[in-house]
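Hey, resending since the last one bounced:
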Amino acid sequence: MALLLDRRPDGRGDGIIATDLALKTSEVKALLGPDEVEGSFDIAKARSWLDNFAQKINAQAPADGVRSHDETVRLQGGSIVNRIYNAQVEDLVVLFVHGGGWVIGSLDSHDVLARWIAAQTGAKVISIGYGLAPEHPFPQAIEQCSEVFRATIDGLRASQARVFVAGDSAGANIAAMSLLRLEPAQRRKVAGFASIYGAYSPEMNLSSHRLYGDGRYGLSEAQMRWFWNLYAPHLSASDREKLTPISADLADFPPTLCIGAECDLLLDDTLAFYSRLAGSSVDVTLSLWPNLPHGCLHFVGLVESVTQAAGSIVQFIENRIRIPQTTRPKGDGPGAQISARAGGRSAEAGGDRNLIDVEPLFVTSRSRSHGSLAHTIATAIIKGEMSPGELLPNEEKASASFGVSRSAYREAMRTLAAKGLVVALPKVGTRIAPRSAWQLLDPDVLGWHFEAEPSEPFVRDLFELRNAVQPTAAILAAQRRDDSDVSNLADALARMARSGPNSGGWLNAIVSFHKGVLSATKNEAIASLTPAISASIRWSMKLQMSLPSLKLVRDPVADHARVFETIAAQNTREAGHAMASLIDAALVDTLENLRRFRQA
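The structure tokens again:
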């Protein structure tokens, strides 16, 4: 699965990279001159190109006040040189493993990124100068980094000191494999791992490898295969699973932030790693960066779109610092693993898994007496405590029995009559209306049903309605969506991925996503069903949040990502299928949650 934003149907070719990044990249490449070409398959030329490219960027980096020095470290297999930033800090350490396809890259080529992390977090950052392939093939870099990890963890002085690990591209792979080489007790001391567009699929057989592998965004499929082969030339195809954490036991892996860039052939590597972590009940967060390519963090601090996206790394570290060191949350299923740790600056950013939704199910306010009375009577009607045709007491008696004013009672009756629950007849009075007259899709009527504990047949009816409307809406959205629609859906998906499933942020992101699909149809009649569908989704999510644990048939983020992908790619045939599949899974989850709720 790849998250594809294809602008070609709009007649704009491949220009989907963020404008500010595209301009800065062109500016830096112009400084290199025509003789320096990216994507070389000559080792010396490839190393020279990246070093020169980084040098031009480093010269423009703003002053940050972070001091650094290089330090030679003696290891069992020899020695390496690490670069230390903020050496005076003792209670917060980030171990950084640079990328470069295991073959190129250096402390200098990734100095801007390591320095930026040090400046933004205030941490001591140790950038590890591991040996490059093919001179140092697999597993030498892993052995070197894991040795540095052990020494750093064992050398912590303060009991509350925190160690984080971060790596980009091939560096993320090395870092993940190095973590797996630690003893479980040492691994538990790692507060978090930031995987930045990591390389995890040596087979190079994922869809993003095909979609973005032609080199238009820098790194190509051919070059990535070249890197893999130089890194592990001695391994047969059947042994290449040893190169990736995806095939390993990840049950006690540290909390992880998985970052994927939209215009990156390694996007599906990130999604595959995220999926394996989620399936292993690891506390994992998925952060998707739209309009950015592989290697974009070379420009962090220089380009606003990149710097803003990189904020998720800082937020991940800051939020993990707030969690007691002995705490290692575990969920009961894949959906429980989508953590709120890297949330935005909104209410969910604090990672409170018990944060409830601030938006009520009801349109009619219950803070005023007439709204509260309408709710009380409606719930009694829906529960069957008042039968169809039953005559309500006259206004004077009813207002006295309910303890409200006559005007409040009249207003409550008007509300219920407008929603079809009662009917006022001249010289007869107000009677309970038959169910066939109720405005079942009115958000208040739905909300009253939900509070009265709806029956399974009623829940199935609602999901049948959703399955009749929303797949068609997805098809129309794929046909008619514009850039604003795609942006709104991408934003909702990103908020969903970084929020916990027991948080208001999660709930609101899912509702926003489905509202966005209905809006993208450009069909007023379909869009008019938004309040009813939103109320149904909101109730399902609140039911889920009321349970102590989650048991979901599939990962909801992955299901919503498939819908997003098909709409963004204007794939009408698959858009309907993806939405129908999502709703089918949601129905199974909702019915099971309803049964568990009643048993509890």
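DSSP finds 21 helices and ten strands in the chain.

Sorry for the duplicate.
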